[in-house]
Amino acid sequence: MTSGPAEVLPISSDAPEPELVERAAALLRTGKLVAIPTETVYGLGCNALDAAAVQRVFDAKERPSSDPLIAHVDGPAMLVSVAATPVPESARVLMDAFWPGPLTVVIPRHPDLPDAVTSGLPDVAVRCPAHPVAAAIISAAGVPVAAPSANRFSRVSPTSAAHVLTDLADRIEMVVDSGRSVHGLESTVVAFDAGGAIVLRHGAIPLEAIQELVPARALGGDADADRVKASPGHDERHYSPRTATLAVVPGVLADASAEQLAALARTGVRYAGYSNRAPELPDGWDFESLGSIDRIETVAHDLYDALRRMDRPDVDLIILELTGADGLGRAIDDRLARAASSVVALSPGELSDRLG
Ligand code: AMP
Ligand code: MG
Description:
This protein has 13 helices and 16 strands. By secondary structure, it is an alpha/beta fold. It folds into two domains: 7-230, Alpha-Beta Complex (DHBP synthase); 244-355, Rossmann fold (3-Layer(aba) Sandwich), CATH 3.40.50.11030. Helix 1 crosses helix 6 (132-141). The protein is globular. Adenosine monophosphate binds at residues 67-70, 106, 118, 121, 123-125, 148-149, 186, 189, 200-201, 231-233.
């Protein structure tokens, strides 16, 4: 799709070099695809006002056209080129509190925005990133930048330039390399109704922080079934390794009897758990530490790198232990469950059935 592999352009995240920022920005202005570092994960950026460039992003990712993109802006002035004004009051309150930062608001769109960005929906998802390199590139480009995560659709999101190259090297023009992502988890996506804010996707900003400012709830429960169905990006399989993957609730192995543990013995199983509550594993299983639950930010930061690392030919099955924590734990558990296509074992017996 491009004339060669993507150019890798290192830019300092502490002090982005203006001439390098301008090179990336110039490519974006002319309809090219540039993967950029943000504080959440690496995004695959294009000019959000250029319908042909937006289409190329969907093609490069093999993303269905029904899954809309997030438009990234450098502040309130640029917001009016993608969103209708005035912005709903609850959205305004959250933007004032969390922008720039990992909060995406879903608000009525601007009529001139290409339909592909919103998948034809009346609302657009908008975020103002805090990462100094992302912010500098968007400002220099002078246009809003549509940027989904820079991975192939349904795969694990990228938190380094190397991850981007693995998935997209021959499909895009440039990868800006500013080291590892800060949070390592996507933004929190929030929509609004008469009752206040609705978290459509858990992310780097916890529900609890939003609830301090506006009435807010997470999408879920039977009452929301229709809304979940109508809401894009809620595929059960997402953020997934290629290797077969299963999730387990905390404590499943700790609750297993000696006989149950013995029956689970086999090779090729990689069990991802937490260093502060590592269970006794069946024979032949290997332990992969996702970090300590007491340092949940670090678990989030390293999560996608760990998922990519475990995804190897000598591993037959990846088992992911949910954190069971609130706050950031909700976002981590959402990603772990989707990595496992929502197959979650609740008991030693179920785990044994799944292993066959
Ligand atoms: P990403 O893959 O990180 O770019 O995430 C984009 C996600 O934001 C989508 O999969 C949806 O969950 C959400 N999103 C984007 N635009 C909209 C929209 N107009 N309405 C509802 N959710 C949206
Ligand atoms: Mg994504």
